[in-house]
Specification:
Layout: E1 8-10, E2 15-16, E3 19-20, E4 22-23, H1 89-100, H2 107-119, H3 132-145, H4 150-164, E5 170-176, H5 183-187, E6 191-198, H6 201-206, E7 210-211, E8 224-230, H7 239-248, E9 250-261, H8 267-280, H9 296-302, E10 306-319, H10 322-331, H11 347-359, E11 366-378
Parallel strand pairs: 5-6, 5-8, 6-7, 8-9
Antiparallel strand pairs: 1-10, 2-3, 4-10, 9-11, 10-11
């Protein structure tokens, strides 16, 4: 059952352990002020480099719930209660596979993809970490339930504010991730035309757009002067390829701006899952790949972007129970989509997790943290990029 405002308290900015909730990592961004785009000497990134392959997944209806925010940045997956995929899964899966399959007869696109794959290669092949069909089904279910937008709306509003600070009007934008069909119209305040792409067919249709798998699509060449990506790049199997393909679609002097989940997301829920694992006498494979905020600029630079910046927004939300948090994650389409997932928790393990989550609170509510990483970068061009 969905919960009301009394079940969840959200404050714009919280402080914990004497540290401000919004922590500047790369750029100096103060509320209401233009944030700088200083070049950062970030460490080279690694660990999110995957092969480009797509295999149909069978037995989707048997998957149990595995939770984490969006979920892929320095996070641990958990599996609690029943989290069956959407109805009509086989038909939807065929639709997703058909619509996301990229043609291979474009020489420029093939060159771009080959370059990205070469730069993303490892000595040993890395298997796909995320199940793209299951990711789409999770977003399908969220769309039918009515998506929970309090975090995503915060992220979109922040990106829109940053875009409005630019001393230019954009001609054509690409929006990747659109759980709210009102977002494209709001973006048209600063851009003439908006194309929508979303991993979930229902979200894509509501935004009058198309389905996308970000590291397996054929982008139009040099089409967009603005790309905004909200909350989906966390769960692609090859982020370098996804960034390279996005860059291929962008004009010179174009702006990429977006949001992904950070590594400090859901610490209380992850701790509760460790308590459940301890009861079973062992640890499950719950760890996702990690991207530190300082690594994102390097990933963007290697994909051909210039002047990348990253900063962190930590949002604290109090919950009456772990199940209320789980409900929000389902409504965000944010439960776990790892290809290899642990078995569901037993009843005793679930009780242990619920108890641990409650004990982390004040006796009535438990405060959970959502870490949001904001990033921006430019495609180099002849024009002077705004500072």
């Amino acid at each position: 059952m969905r919960h009301g405002p009394r079940d969840r308290d959200l404050a714009a900015v919280f402080e914990a352990d004497g540290e401000a909730s919004r922590e500047i990592v790369i750029c100096d961004r103060r509320p209401g002020a233009r944030y700088s785009r200083r070049r950062s000497k970030a460490a080279r990134a690694g660990g999110l480099l995957g092969r480009l392959k797509r295999k149909a997944t069978t037995g989707a209806a048997s998957f149990a719930q595995e939770l984490d925010l969006l979920p892929a940045i320095r996070a641990e997956a958990v599996n609690v209660l029943d989290d069956c995929p959407a109805a009509r899964a086989p038909g939807r899966k065929r639709e997703i596979e058909h619509r996301s399959r990229a043609p291979t007869n474009n020489p420029s696109y093939l060159h771009c993809l080959l370059v990205a794959r070469r730069e993303a290669s490892h000595k040993h092949a890395v298997p796909d970490l995320f199940d793209m069909e299951l990711r789409a089904l999770r977003r399908e279910r969220a769309a039918r339930m009515g998506p929970e937008l309090f975090l995503l709306e915060r992220a979109f509003a922040d990106c829109l504010e940053r875009i409005e600070l630019q001393d230019r009007r954009f001609e054509r934008a690409l929006m990747i991730g659109c759980p709210d069909p009102a977002w494209p119209e709001r973006l048209r305040i600063v851009v003439g035309h908006v194309d929508v792409r979303d991993p979930g067919p229902l979200f894509a249709a509501a935004g009058e757009g198309e389905v996308i798998v970000e590291d397996a699509w054929e982008p139009p060449s040099q089409t967009y002067d603005l790309v905004i990506a909200i909350g989906t790049l966390d769960t692609v199997n090859s982020l370098p390829i996804a960034l390279r393909l996005i860059g291929y679609a962008m004009k010179a002097d174009a702006l990429l701006i977006g949001v992904i989940s950070g590594g400090e997301t859901l610490p209380q829920l992850r701790s509760a899952m460790r308590a459940a694992d301890a009861l079973a006498g062992g640890a499950s494979a719950h760890v996702h790949p990690r991207i530190e905020p300082s690594a994102l600029p390097a990933l963007l630079s290697e994909a051909g972007f210039a002047r990348p910046v990253v900063d962190v927004d930590r949002v604290q939300v109090s919950y009456l129970s772990m199940d209320r948090l789980i409900g929000d994650l389902r409504s965000m389409g944010a439960t776990n989509v790892l290809r290899s997932r642990a078995a569901p928790l037993g009843r005793a393990q679930h009780k242990a997790a619920v108890r641990a989550f409650a004990e982390a609170g004040d006796g009535e509510r438990t405060t959970e943290t959502f870490e949001i990483l904001h990033f921006a970068a430019w495609i180099p061009g002849k024009e002077l990029m705004p500072r």
